[in-house]
Amino acid sequence: MQGQKGKAAGDGTHNTFRSGFAALIGRPNVGKSTLLNAFVGQKIAIMSNRPQTTRNRIHGVLTTDDAQLVFIDTPGLHSPRHKLGEYMVTAAENALKEVDVVLMVTDATENRPDLDKVVIDRLRSVDTPVYLAINKVDAVSKPDVLTFIDTYRKLYPFREIIPISARDGTQLDTLKALILKEMPAGPKYYPDEMLTDHPEQFIIAEVIREKVLRLTREEVPHSVMVEIEQLGRKEGSDVLHIGAVIYTERESQKGILIGKRGDMLKRVGQLARQELEALLGTKIFMELWVKVKKDWRNEPSFLRRFGFDEQE
Are residues 40 and 108 both part of a single domain? Predict the structure, then answer.
């Protein structure tokens, strides 16, 4: 993502094309992935009510007639407890240095500035414009929203504070217009039809992982990583064959993921297959396996294999 800020000077026409990058940051579980999906109009980031669902930086692309906005959904800023957590925080912090706009997202149902302190502290070294999106305003009263705005206005010089609901679309057009105003004249980075720059393999693995998050409890969801080992069609077939390995850290977790008579693994596969068939527009045959990789979240070579790097 080098050279993102020094963009070209438009196309010379009367309506200058604008393009740029906006980072979505915030604590885990405030709705950043839901907001990203709402911006691009399709699900490209997995969603869960569990903290730290997003592990990689996910790029969503919104292209209009006169602009292209690239939204970067970052992992939630938190105090890491393992190597994976450290890489996630590094990815989020580095995104702040590479964008034209920073959009901090917080949760209207929790007027708790103390919880957002770790995020706001990291913003103090940012030179780019910072907007605050107060998400989930559909779940609180208007007086509560006004109190929330007043509280956060005193904590940081946000360019603007916008109450939104990523779920029902409240004020999303207003927010997009404000972000667009910050974008310089520049080129189109991605084709019109592209909604994300992540490969199909990444999206498939994330959908499978989302189903594990939905169906399992306690430590199991956080200990899971999915690797796509097979992806393709047999000659003469229109069915997409997916073979995936779900890695976990302990034998007991493997037992939970497989379930009694394989019921849990079948359910994960069924839900993932249904969503991916709708998303990819094709029939799918899916095979899932579960393997144990002890303490993989603290093993740098394993993390690099899945795209995590200290320099991200």
Answer: yes
